[in-house]
Inverse folding.
């Protein structure tokens, strides 16, 4: 069982009702473990289960469009990996908190791995 959480922001403002997919990378096709959306405050929590024998490589996928008001931007599908070693096949439950995810930084290709998990692994 994998529990993932975090909050999407755009220029410091919450991104409400934004689709988020929890996936697991596989050799041929990636598995969808959970699908959800952010709440009115930009928070998301997904719970997924994968029956793999080997360690898994989970990530979240979403489409972002966040830019400064005077600029035009196009939505981009992005993958945010859970850092290696945060998920273990030896635990019954794995929890990872992405913390605040600033989508402006992602869509403008700044520091993508800003502060994931700074709040700790508990949610």
């Amino acid at each position: 069982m994998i529990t993932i959480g975090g909050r999407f922001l755009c220029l410091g403002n919450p991104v409400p009702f934004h689709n988020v997919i929890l996936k697991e990378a596989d050799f041929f096709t990636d598995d969808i473990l959970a699908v959800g959306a952010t709440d009115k405050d930009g928070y998301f929590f997904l719970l997924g289960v994968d029956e793999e024998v080997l360690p898994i490589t989970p990530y979240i996928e979403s489409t972002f469009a966040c830019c400064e008001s005077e600029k035009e931007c196009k939505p981009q599908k992005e993958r945010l990996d859970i850092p290696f070693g945060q998920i273990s096949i030896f635990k019954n439950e794995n929890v990872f908190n992405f913390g605040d995810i600033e989508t402006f930084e992602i869509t403008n290709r700044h520091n993508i791995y800003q502060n994931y998990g700074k709040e700790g692994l508990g949610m």
In short: The longest strand covers residues 2-10. The CA atoms of residues 106 and 112 lie 5 Å apart. The radius of gyration is 14 Å.
